[in-house]
Design brief:
By secondary structure, the protein is an alpha+beta fold. It has three domains: 4-120, 2-Layer Sandwich (Beta-Lactamase), CATH 3.30.450.40; 138-280, Alpha-Beta Plaits (2-Layer Sandwich), CATH 3.30.70; 294-389, no CATH class. 55% of the residues lie in helices and 14% in strands. It has helices at 4-18, 45-53, 61-66, 95-137, 145-154, 176-190, 220-237, 253-270, 287-293, 296-314, 318-330, 335-342, 346-360, 371-389, and strands at residues 22-26, 31-34, 57-59, 73-79, 85-92, 162-169, 200-204, 208-215, 244-247, 279-281. A hairpin with a 3-residue loop joins strand 7 (200-204) and strand 8 (208-215). Helix 1 packs across helix 4 (95-137), helix 11 (318-330) packs across helix 13 (346-360) and helix 12 packs across helix 13.
Length: 393
């Protein structure tokens, strides 16, 4: 398809390279791209003749006087891959002077159009894939499983393949300006041998990459092997310094995609799992289920009163105390590592932990039964603070 944007691109690129004035006419012989803006929108009589007869037409100085909207030069039909004349490119000048570069200009114009059509097909496929993927993970699907399966086959994915949802988070904001970073990472991932043609992947609006990874075996331990191999290769294909991976379980059928994604997204969204390990498999981690299932009343009547008590007890030192407790849990109560990370003495870490226990009225220790309650308190505090500190709400 030859539109005004592409026509002007042809005119600009050829003129910048060769220095000759270029006009590009559509199939109705209207100038839609030109180095002379005053000629845009005018009818080109010789271009119409070239279109109707599919031939190159030359115009001399004498002939141009007798023709409508025509200057001396050479006019060559632009032909698409199907052999159809879709427009004309004209070079202003003495035909004897510009004749030898006519073929080059025609080839350049047709190449630019072909490249644009390729890009249009690429973006069309990507948009179709994104819509398909969002439909696949929706728990309120408006079309049947058979229609979804046919749709997947149509855009190149065998829906008979077994897959699990993999969410890849790189600590990148979900803003549009940051989306390009995730696109680059995903493109790098796709270059690796472990990313298969049948893997369904896309950058999601939530600020993460979603991959439905194809499996040969579906047992939990086999899923772990497949994903571990996938991530090992990925470390060489993308900057995995801040990467966290959340993997849902395998379930049968189209509805299984919703379940697998729900598990991966549940772990990702909960925020409970910090950076003490790079990958979390849903069959090993169920804490997020409990956290996500707490209703607003439980937060209002149980969790928030604890947060208010901590804030009243520590005052301006609340943030320092909560960061210390987060580190204690991240390092599994290895106080030396916490102290090294925070650049404080080990005794300072222990002192802050003891003060927190004094405030709460219960003890916190490795594998302690009250740890779950405090982790929910801590995580909710961090979420409230992040929301409060956000410049846009």
């Amino acid at each position: 398809m030859l539109d005004k944007k592409i026509a002007q691109k042809i005119a600009d690129e050829v003129m910048n390279t060769l220095g000759y004035n270029i006009n590009v006419m559509n199939k109705n012989a209207i100038i839609i791209g030109s180095g002379s803006p005053d000629r845009l929108g005018s009818f080109h009589e010789t271009a119409m003749f070239a279109i109707q007869n599919g031939i190159t037409c030359e115009v001399t100085d004498t002939q141009s006087i007798e023709l409508r909207g025509v200057k001396p030069g050479i006019n060559l039909p632009i032909v698409d891959k199907g052999g159809e004349v879709i427009g004309v490119v004209g070079i202003t000048g003495d035909p004897d002077e510009v004749r030898n570069i006519g073929k080059l200009v025609k080839m350049t114009a047709e190449l630019i159009i072909e490249q644009q059509e390729t890009m249009n097909r690429f973006y069309s496929h990507r948009n179709d894939k994104e819509i398909f993927l969002n439909t696949l993970i929706s728990d309120q699907q408006s079309i049947s499983e058979e229609e979804i399966a046919d749709w997947g086959e149509r855009i190149g994915y065998s829906m008979e393949s077994c897959r699990v949802a993999v969410i890849l988070s790189f600590g990148i904001d979900h803003k549009t300006s940051e989306k390009g970073k995730l696109e680059k990472i995903l493109n790098q991932i796709k270059l690796s041998d472990s990313h298969l043609k049948d893997d369904i992947s896309s950058v999601m609006s939530g600020g993460f990459i979603l991959v439905f990874k194809t499996l040969k075996r579906t047992e939990p331990w086999e899923v772990e092997k497949t994903i571990s191999t996938y991530l090992d290769v990925m470390k060489n294909a993308a900057d995995a310094k801040n990467m966290q991976c959340f993997v849902g379980g395998y379930y049968l059928g189209v509805k299984g995609y919703v379940k697998s994604y729900g598990e991966a997204y549940g772990m990702y969204r909960s925020g409970i799992y910090k950076k003490n390990q790079p990958v979390y498999f849903s069959h090993h981690h169920y804490l997020w289920r409990l956290y996500n299932q707490l209703d607003k009343e439980a937060y209002t009547l149980v969790i928030e009163p604890y947060i208010q008590k901590i804030q009243k007890y520590f005052g301006k030192g609340t943030e320092e105390a909560m960061i210390t407790m987060r580190k204690i849990f991240d390092y599994h109560f290895h106080f030396e590592q916490v102290a090294e990370d925070l650049f404080v003495h080990k005794n300072t870490v222990i002192f802050r932990k003891n003060k927190m226990e004094e405030c709460l009225g219960f003890s916190l220790k490795c594998n302690g039964h009250d740890n779950l309650l405090f982790m929910i308190i801590l995580n909710h505090y961090e979420k409230l603070k992040k929301f409060k500190d956000s410049p846009i709400r």
